[in-house]
Amino acid sequence: SGGTVLVPAGRHRCFSIRLRSRVTLSLAKGAVIEAAEGKGYDMPEDIEQLYQDFGHSHWRNSLIWGDDLHDVAILGPGLIDGAGLTRDGPGARWKAQTGERPLSMRGMSAQDIGKLEPDAAAMRGRGNKAIALRNGRNVNLTGFTMRKCGHFAILATGTQGLTIRDLTIDTDRDGIDLDCVRDVVVERCRVNTPNDDAIVVKASYALGRKVAAENIVIRHCAVSGFDLGTLLDGTRLTTQLLAPDRDRPTGRIKLGTESNGGYRNILIEDCSFTHCRGLALETVDGGVMENVVARRLTMQDVTTAPIFLRLGDRRRGPPGTAIGAIRGVRISEIVATGIDHRYAAGIAGLPGHPIEDVSLTDIRLSYRGGGTAADAARTPEEHATAYPEPSMFGVLPAWGLWMRHARRVAIDRLELSTETP
Predict the structure, then answer these.
(1) What is the rounded distance in angstroms from the CA atom of residue 61 to the CA atom of residue 120?
(2) Rounded Cα gap, residues 41 and 36, in angstroms
(3) Checking DSSP bridges between strand 279-283 and strand 222-224, what pairing results, if any?
(4) Bond preceding residue 257 cis, omega within 30 of 0
(5) Distances in Å between the alpha carbon of 104 and those of 90, 258, 389?
(6) Which stretch of DSSP H or E encloses residue 393?
């Protein structure tokens, strides 16, 4: 069995497509697979999403999905259009309910939050992902374009041997989510996500156990937070002021937030960030982050912190989940300009649980300027259990680099400057 399914030029509107092993789905030039409107999508799996939200916990309620499959490919140059997908879904159901949302969302009414997080019953029959894969092996996603793809353009969970290459994604929430994966290469992709993360590595509890994300390379990619759709049309507008979490546009490369299984052997290199948040390396759910290398990154018009390392104590996981750790992080050859002075590069551990063995080498950070003497006198709260974001500490008492609860941090050739006083 197996073979190639050729999608010819033209617009093909459909509900859920199930991938099978040893099958290649090839989108010809001019071919468009469009997500249909309505409640005709496959039903989500009957899984209790205790420690991650609805989107991370289900795969079948997607435009294209596959489970326990191997040797499959989706090839371009056609387009996957998620016109009929929703970006919404309910949150996790664990009892503690701490750190569920960024602190920037404090003050939002229950009605406003409800619009972003409808209950599970409202999601039945709705599609909220473009491509969702669980427990795949030897998967190749190459050379196509994706537009407005719901909660996730691509969600790969428990997948081993995954190549994502030469994609252009312009979408209304997450771009590429790599959850509990290993042996992965993401390269030469352009991902625009003003409302959420562009390329993000996670290690959630979605498989019902702790699984590390490991042996991952992200290289030669461009991430951004331009207005939705304006990467594809070439205008690259920046009129959107805030993401739904009430911080400035997102669009970054991140490790986290879901982090039960931890991360090992991650390489991020030769990537650009434009009009978006900077590099975020976070573990808050008990996982250990180790051997992470980020090098040769350029950033322009950075909307929050250019570099953010956070060890937190959310511990969204089974009883007995311990505080995790961050160690062995090497960041080098970073050039970032147009940074908001409120968001210094930050390394923030916890009392008794410092972030350890970090090196910062050849770092040049240029801030827009501003700040007051009152800012310099601030002492940020710990917010140990809070959702991790650079804005969680408010305006920091430093405009260049701020560290707390960290040890064995080596800094070599760090240049800090401001455009105005």
Answers:
(1) 12
(2) 9
(3) unpaired
(4) yes
(5) 19, 18, 9
(6) none
**If DSSP codes are grouped into helix, strand and coil, which group holds residue 57?**
helix
**Taking the alpha carbons of 123, 124, 128, 133 in that order, is the dihedral positive or negative?**
positive
Q: Which of 180, 196, 190, 258 is nearest to 218 (CA)?
A: 190
Residue with tokens 């009929």: 84
226: CB partners within 8 A, 6+ apart:
192, 194, 236, 237, 238, 249, 251, 274, 275
With tokens 């929703």, the residue in question is 86
- Assign residue 351 the CATH number of its domain: 2.160.20.10
Containing domain of residue 397, as a range?
3-418
Amino acid identity for residue 99 in this structure: G
Query: Which residue, chain included where needed, has tokens 């009892």?
Result: 95
pLDDT tens across the length of the chain (421 residues): 799 999 999 999 999 999 999 999 999 999 999 999 999 999 999 887 889 999 999 999 999 999 999 999 999 999 999 999 999 888 887 766 677 888 888 878 777 777 767 777 888 999 999 999 999 999 999 999 999 999 999 999 999 999 999 999 999 999 999 999 999 999 999 999 999 999 999 999 999 999 999 999 999 999 999 999 999 999 999 999 999 999 999 999 999 999 999 999 999 999 999 999 999 999 999 999 999 999 999 999 999 999 999 999 999 999 999 999 999 999 999 999 999 999 999 999 999 999 999 999 999 999 999 989 999 999 999 999 999 999 999 999 999 999 999 999 999 999 999 999 8
Helix (H) or strand (E) holding 17: strand 17-18
Number of domains in the chain: 1
C-alpha dist (Å) from residue 30 to 11, 35, 90: 8, 16, 35
Which tokens go with 125?
């029959």
DSSP string of 129-174?
EEEEEES-EEEEEES-EEE--BTEEEEEES-EEEEEES-EEE-SSE
d(CA 147, CA 138): 25
Cut 0.90: pTM above it: yes
CA-derived radius of gyration, the chain = 20
